[in-house]
## 1
Amino acid sequence: MGNISHHLSSARSVDVNGRAYRWPVRPTVVVCFDGCDPAYIEAARAAKVIPAIESMIHGGFSALALAAMPTFTNPNNVSIVCGAPPAVHGVSGNYYLDRETGREIMMLDAAPLRAPTILAAFSSSGANVAAITAKDKLRKALGNGLQGIAFSAEKADICTEAEHGIGNVPMLVGRGPPDPYSADLSLFVLDAGIRLLESRRPDLLYLSLSDYVQHKHPPGMPEADAFMQAVDMRLATLIRLGATVGIVADHGMNDMAQPGGTPNVLYLGDRLDEKFGAGATRVICPITDPFVRHHGALGGFVRVHLMRDGLDANIVRQFVRKIPGVQHALAKEEACQRFDLPVEREADIVVVAEKGVAIGARAVDHDLAQLAGERLRSHGGLAEQAVPFLLSHPLNADYASRPTAGLRNFDIFDYALNGIL
Ligand SMILES: [Zn+2]
C-alpha cells in the first residue's frame, strides 16, 4: 500500500492508484447499479417513474461511460473501487484457468487484490467508510483492507463487529436477508445504506446491487419499471439525507435469444473440438458464477487456451474470427493492450461476441434448464459496454469542461469527490 498517502492541509486528499481524491465535503455515496443498461433508464423516464434520476439528469450530471472489458460484474466492481482498469488490479473475470493445475479458479478467491481500493485508502486515512454488496463474494474483495463496515445483503444475518464492522444488520434494516434470487436483494442493499447514512453518517459509502431483474426482464416491462421506481425512491432518500450520490453500472444487458426464444448460443468449444480435435483447446467462460440461474454461464466474452503442443495460435484465431457471431478474436497481447487487461491471467485468444450472441464452451457444459424457459439476457461483450454515469450535483468548471467521450465507469469516485461543486 505504498502509493497511499494523505495530506493534512486545506486541500486534504488521498492518493490511490495514481489519482488524488479530495476528502469528501459531505457523505459521498457511489451506487453500482448492476446491469443497468441505459435502455432501462430511458424506458423508466418515458414511464415517468424515476423522478430522482430525472432530477440528477437535469440538475446534476449525466453521461454515458464505458465499462471495463470484459463487461462482467466482478472486474467492473473492482475497477470502480480501485478507480483503475483490470491491468492495474488484476481481476479480469470471475474465473481464470490455472495452466499449472488445469483448474478453473475464482479470481476473487485466488489472491488479495494487487491494487489498493479507494475505500481502503480512505479508511486508513481516518475516513468512515462502508461498503454493502448484494453478493458475499464481492464483499470479501471490496472489503479488502477496509477498516470500516463491509457486508452483503446475501449474508446479512451473520454479520459480526469483528469481521464486518457491524452486527445485527437485520435489526438495522428492519428485515432479514432477502431471497438471493429476488429484486429485494438490491433493495436491501439500498435500505441498509439509507439506515447507515442516517445512523452513522459515513464519509464514503459504496452500494453494489444485483442484476437479477435485468437478466429476467427487458427495459420497459412492468417488472423492470417497478424495480427502477423502487430503486429511484431510495436514491431520492439518499439525496434528501444530504449525500452526494454517484451512479454507474458494471455493464449493460442485451437479449441473446432467437425470435422463437431459443438462446442464441455459439458453442465455441464444440466448434474447436470438431476442427482441431477434442481437448486441443479449452474455452473458459469467465462469466461463470455461483449465481448461474441468471444466465446459464453464457455471455458475450470467452477465453480460448491452447492445450496441445504445437497448435498455432494464429491458425486457431483465424478459424474463430470467421465463425458467424464472433465480433473479435484477438491474440493475447492485442487483447491486453486494447482492453487494459492483465497479461499474466490472459488466455491465448480472446473472443468477443457480436451483439445478441452468447458464446459458450461445449453444449454439455451449459445447463439451459436454468433459464426456466425465459429468454436469455446477458452481457460480457462490447455491446454491453456503454453504461449510465450520473451525479446528483453539477460539475465544477474544470470537470464540466472535460470531454465525455473517454469517460469510464471507474471514473465515478473521481467525479463524485473531485468533480462537483
Ligand atoms: Zn453485473
## 2
Amino acid sequence: MSDDLTLPGFVNAHSHAFQRALRGSAGGGDFWAWREAMLELARGQSPHNVRTSYEAVYREMLAAGWTAVGEFHYLGFEEAVAAAEAAEAAGIELVLLYAAYGRGGLDRFRQGSPAEYLRRVEQLADKGIRTGLAPHSVRACPRDWLEEIGRYADEGDFVLHVHADEQPREIEECIGEHGVRPIELLAETGCLGPRTTIVHATHADDRELDLLSDSGARVCLCPTTEASLADGFAPVERLVQRGVGICVGSDSNVRIDPLEELRELDGVARRGALRRDLLSAGDLLCFGSDEGAASLGLTEWPEVTVDLEHRSLAGIEESDVPCALVYGCAGDVFSATEP
Ligand SMILES: [Zn+2]
C-alpha cells in the first residue's frame, strides 16, 4: 500500500468559531438556555480576540481535514475583518457569511436597515474578502429585510445562507407573525434559490422540503451541534428522497472533525430509515466536500492527504479506505495542510 492518498478537502459550510470556547461548559437545560450562555460569550468579543482565537480554531479545522470554511458571522464589522485575517494567517479558505440582524440578539449584531447591511457586505467584498449574504433567521430579520436581501441576492453573485427550522419555537413564532412556516416565508420573500443554503431544517415539514427541492436550495446539517443543542433529528431520509443537496458544518465547533459530522449524519439516516444503505460512503464524502463547496460558491479549494500508515487504517485495503474513513476514523487521519 502506498503511504498517502489525496482526496478533495472537506468544506465546513457553517461555523461560528467563537463558540468553540463553550465546549468545556455543560451550559443549560435546552437550546434557549444555551443561547443565553452563547450571547454572554458573544458580548465579550473584540477584533483582537477574534483575530487570535479564530486563527487557533481554523488551524484545528485544517488539522482535521477541513480546508475551507463558511464563517457565519454576526459579531460586527471589525470582527468580520479580523476573522478574515485569522483565516488568511491559518491558511484556510474562508467565505465570510455576513449576518443581517434586524431585531433581537445584542446591539453589536444589528444593523439599522437592510441598506446599511448591504453596504457592509459590499465593503467586505471590496476588501477582497469572499463574502456571502446571511440573513440570520426569520427571528432576526423582518419580512421587508428578507425581501430586500432576496432581491439583492437575485441580482448579484452572492450565495445566501440562513438558519431555519432548528427549534419548534421558531416555527410557532413565525406562524404567529406571518401565518406561514420559516421556509415558506423565505420562499415568499425571494430568499430561496439554487444559491441558497438552509442551515438545519431540522423540523421542516414536507411542504417546506418540497419548496427546497423545487428551488434547488441546499441544506447544511450540523450533526454534532444539533445533537449537542438538543435540536432534534435532521430529516435526512426525506431530503434524500427529494434529491435536496446536503452539506455539513461544525457550527458551534463543540467538535472539529468532518468524519464525525458525516458519521453522525449517517447514524441519523440509518436510525430513521431502519436501513444501512440510504447513503453510501461516497455520498457522505461528497456531502463533506463538493456539496459544501457548491454551497459556498467555491470552485477550487485545497485537497487533504490521508495518512495510510495511520493506526486506524491498519489492515484496510486501499479500495476500502473511503468506507473505513467514514465509518471508522477521526480527522487525525488527515495530514495538516500547510498554508
Ligand atoms: Zn449557526
